[in-house]
From TrEMBL:
GO terms for molecular function: kinase activity. This is Sensor histidine kinase. It comes from Streptomyces alfalfae. InterPro entries: HATPase_C_sf. Keywords: Kinase, Transferase.
Length: 680
């Protein structure tokens, strides 16, 4: 009993991703090239192939491919592929009417190209002329569709020359919207898909892609984009031979990523970006003459021909074979690994130069912008950290940080392993292993310290900019400086210790029991006050307890620190707006309240707790008047005032912003110099 095949069912079950919207056209082009080969053999110069793009005469314009000075493109509704090949001979026609024909199986053809036509187009019209056995001109015209299948048109006017014209009409919307639009882009797609034919001895026939206004020759693309081909090589992967054709393409903004093309049946099936998959292979390379080029490779083999899927969009080859079976199958990973090793060998010279440029880029970045990585740089390079010389600072920072984390994780695991052996009899070589581990930890700790110092330098740079006048002649508001010192409306129970930068004022402020920023006295757990007044910054520290363990559990008397921040160059200090008096009032209110530790434990009442008041303000005339009124003494450099207020038992310091930045920079100068950071 004969089986019946449903064309509609076969088309429905044929896969065509929208990302391969032009694959039906490419199949028609390959068929036309094969027809030309069948007629002219090695005389490819006699072959002609023209691809005409048909656009809708009306309808919505497509602006996706346009730019300044370019007209909008109308939607594509179809294509016509014309060739002067052998034509639809009776043998070819019989093959066309046979699904899954093996007529051209030796060329890698699966007889599914015409199914892809109907997947993306409503109908196909074919007109062809051929020479019969008596060398007389004969021909046929027919339509091909899901509904009518093959419909001959016996009354059609036949071509006067041998060849064929395949018209793909009714481009279905999902594929139409996903397909490339411009003549140039479509020409490049056809060129890259069929480049195998251009690389073979004798080359490809003359191929033109055109619409009403523009035409592109694929042969000119070969000259415009290809410098030359490198040596043709082959690799062996588990007994299977794979041929590699390597090209140096002329670099352009559109053509800079190195690529590996997986080919089958003289067609490109997969395109893989090789960026960073070989150390030093990032975008463009330079040859011995320093001319930039992009590397591409075409990989082919009988193995790939026999394992390509029917729709030619992928291979029936596993990415990685799990386990170790008795007979190891070839996986995509196996093939890729072999190909990348060969690429590294072929490009040894340019890759070496690119790696040196990348290494210089890393050292320049670390030296000038990220000194925290300097202590561990020699340990990161052996991990295979290579970069594109044109990488942006932000991306390079992320890469180095990621690899530093890997180094830290490796050191942590090594530490557990090494120290776990300390309790038993140490094995041979233990001392050397322990020394290597401790050296790694030392470098990592130095990196952490470098990061901390670099952060301080950056914070001082920001503060310096905040106190300067802007382009409009205005100074920053005090809340900008306030937030830099510590986020506003928060306290130390809500933010971590790294959130504040009070070290700018006094290093001792880093060690506190409680710290509040722009919060009312009533909301602070340490005061017990009902006041709704808001000091800019208020801190307490337990006197006599170790500064690194001041968790509020012990109960010696606290010290009180109050900080007031004024807008740069503000000149409105008066008796009613006296920041010095405001600080002293806050101290008095805290002392008068039921003072508690940050953990809520009561502290015995006292009026003797040492208090420190800092006012950050420029020394305008009104501010100097308030300092003199409070009997403060000028500092030796004339950039601030200080003194002790006996009635309030408080040390008072008024610091100008210039003195604040200068003093903080001087305190950190030794660290900056050690890292090579500028002090100013």
């Amino acid at each position: 009993m004969a089986l019946t095949t449903s064309l509609a069912g076969r088309v429905r079950n044929t896969s065509l991703p929208k990302s391969h919207a032009l694959l039906p056209l490419l199949e028609a082009v390959v068929n036309a090239i094969q027809a030309i080969d069948a007629r002219f053999g090695d005389d490819t110069e006699s072959g002609r192939l023209r691809i005409t793009i048909h656009r809708s005469p009306q309808g919505t314009l497509d602006f996706s491919q346009t730019g300044p000075g370019r007209a909008a493109l109308k939607p594509i509704v179809g294509f016509t592929v014309e060739d002067n090949g052998v034509g639809f001979t009776p043998e070819n026609m019989t093959s066309f009417e046979t699904l899954d024909s093996d007529h051209k199986a030796d060329m890698g053809c699966r007889g599914v190209g015409r199914l892809l036509w109907l997947k993306a187009f409503d109908r196909v019209t074919i007109r062809s002329a051929y020479e019969d056995e008596a060398e007389r001109l004969d021909g046929r015209q027919f339509r091909f569709s899901v509904q009518g299948e093959v419909e001959l048109d016996p009354e059609a006017e036949l071509p006067t020359e041998v060849g064929a014209a395949v018209s793909l009409d009714g481009f279905k919307k999902p594929y139409q919207q996903s397909a490339l639009k411009s003549v140039e882009a479509i020409a490049r797609e056809v060129f890259e898909h069929c480049i195998w034919y251009f690389l073979r001895p004798g080359g490809a026939p003359d191929i033109i892609v055109a619409d009403d206004d523009e035409a592109v020759s694929l042969n000119s693309l070969l000259h415009d984009f290809v410098y030359d081909d490198l040596q043709r090589t082959s690799i062996d992967v588990k007994g299977e031979r794979f041929d590699m054709v390597s090209l140096r393409l002329k670099s352009s903004p559109r053509n800079h990523a190195p690529r590996l093309y997986w080919c089958a049946a003289n067609r490109v099936v997969l395109e893989e970006n090789l960026t960073s998959k070989v150390p030093g292979l990032y975008g463009r390379l330079k040859d011995s003459d320093s001319s930039p080029f992009t590397y591409v490779c075409y990989l082919s083999s009988d193995f790939l021909d026999s394992h390509v899927r029917a729709d030619r969009t992928a291979f029936d080859i596993s990415e990685q074979v799990p386990g170790t079976p008795l007979i190891e199958d070839v996986s995509m990973d196996d093939i890729r690994e072999g190909a990348l090793k060969e690429v590294e060998r072929i490009l040894a010279g340019p890759l070496s130069a690119a790696r040196e440029e990348g290494k210089a880029r890393v050292h320049e970045f670390v030296s000038n912008r990220a000194p925290r990585y300097r202590p561990v740089l020699s340990r990161l390079e052996p991990l295979g950290v290579t970069v594109d010389p044109s990488i942006k600072d932000q991306e390079l920072e992320l890469l180095l940080h990621s690899n530093l984390q890997k180094l830290e994780a490796s050191a942590l695991a090594e530490g557990h392993a090494v120290l776990g052996q300390a309790s038993s009899a140490p094995p041979e070589g233990y001392d050397d292993r322990l020394a290597r581990y401790l050296n790694t930890v030392t470098d990592i700790n130095q990196s952490d310290l470098a990061a901390y110092v670099s952060r301080r330098r950056a914070i001082l740079d920001v503060l310096h900019r905040l106190i300067e006048v802007d382009d409009q002649g205005r100074y920053s508001r005090e809340d900008a400086i306030h937030s830099l010192l510590m986020p506003m409306r928060t306290d130390s129970n809500e933010v971590g210790t790294d959130a504040s930068n009070l070290w700018i004022i006094d290093e001792r402020l880093a060690f506190h029991d409680y710290l509040a920023s722009d919060k009312t006295l009533k909301s602070m757990p340490i005061t017990g006050s009902d006041s709704t007044r808001e000091p800019d910054l208020l801190a307490s520290r337990l006197v006599g307890s170790p500064v690194l363990a001041a968790d509020g559990a012990t109960l010696p008397l606290p010290s009180i620190v109050v900080i007031e921040v004024k807008r740069p160059m503000r000149n409105d200090a008066s008796e009613d707006k006296d920041p010095i008096q405001q600080c002293l009032e806050y101290v008095k209110r805290v002392r008068a309240g039921g003072v508690k530790t940050a953990l809520g434990r009561p502290i015995p009442p006292t009026h003797e707790a040492p208090a420190f008041c800092y006012v950050l303000a420029d020394l305008t005339k009104t501010m100097v008047d308030r300092c003199e009124y409070t009997s403060l003494r000028p500092t030796h450099d004339g950039m601030g005032y200080f003194g002790f207020n006996e009635p309030h038992k408080a040390y008072i310091e008024v610091v100008s912003f210039d003195r604040l930045v200068k003093a903080a920079t001087e305190r950190n100068r030794a660290f900056f110099d050690k890292l090579g950071l500028p002090s100013s």
